[in-house]
Amino acid sequence: MKDGLVIAIDIGGTRIKAGLLDFNGNFVEKISVPTEAYLGKEKVLSNITSVIKNFMKYKVVAIGVAVASPLDPEKGIIYYPPNLPGFEVFNMKAFLEDRFSLPVFIDNDANLYALGEWWKGSGEKANILLCITIGTGIGGGLIFKGNIWHGAHGFGGEFGHITIDPHGPLCNCGNKGCFEAMSSSYFLIKYIKDRLNEGEASILSEFIEDLTPKLIYEAAVKGDTLAIEGFRIIGTNVGIGLASLVNALDPEVVVIGGGLSKAGMILMDPVKAEFNQRVLKGIRDRIQLKLAVLGEFSAVLGAAYLAIKGMGGGE
Q1: pTM metric for this prediction
Q2: Dihedral sign from CA coordinates of 306, 68, 111, 215
Q3: Are the C-beta atoms of 229 and 216 separated by less than 8 Å?
Q4: Distance from the CA of 110 to the CA of which of 15, 156, 168, 253 falls in 20 to 30 A?
């Protein structure tokens, strides 16, 4: 089947982003609404249902779903999503199929972000694509010949929990010195705050209680030494993590996305410097290191491709 349209939806803790797309990946419509996760499970499900109903006036043949949660992509069961309180163990696939009588294809949002970049973004449909997202945590996905690599137990792509420094800060997963614990926006903000509290001079001192990555980036652009140093440390840690992953996986293309990637070369210059020192010489010049280009609808595109491929389409 290569006609009709698909609904693709990205369910995050803050916003629900969705689109109606044709089988070539062209958007017919887009929508973004608050998730309202703080109002509980039933409200979130109501919001998801309303978004999908918005597109049902068209000839829809399938639904693709990205969700910020550990899950079983075959059964469609999500497990204790950290930013969707009240869901615990829930069969999202069955819920949506029952309500809309359409086939539903579902995967983790980070995997589908990677799939979106592979299909329509910086990934160039590489045979092996490694993608990481750097934000409040480190997400990631590995795309092998257009398929998501899930691993034996569904945990493939948890790149944020490789170890950068065994004596580093405690990670939410319980280990010390994880990639995520040393390269996230949380780490950047904490580093800047700690230095400011130690008396470091910076134009950021007046924002110490309201620091954001955007403010730190703007200070770096203005030449603030502390802000530049913060991005240098983050970039160095990202370079260490990426080199370890590339040495193990040997991808053709590495795509870096997420909120911190918006810092552009302020982040990427130290990433590349450290990466080039640590990656195996035999592959250093053959790896393409790129910034993501699709923005906030990347996982929507990935969810669309998942549905299109599930219906016999895709390239």
Answers
A1: 0.91
A2: positive
A3: no
A4: 168
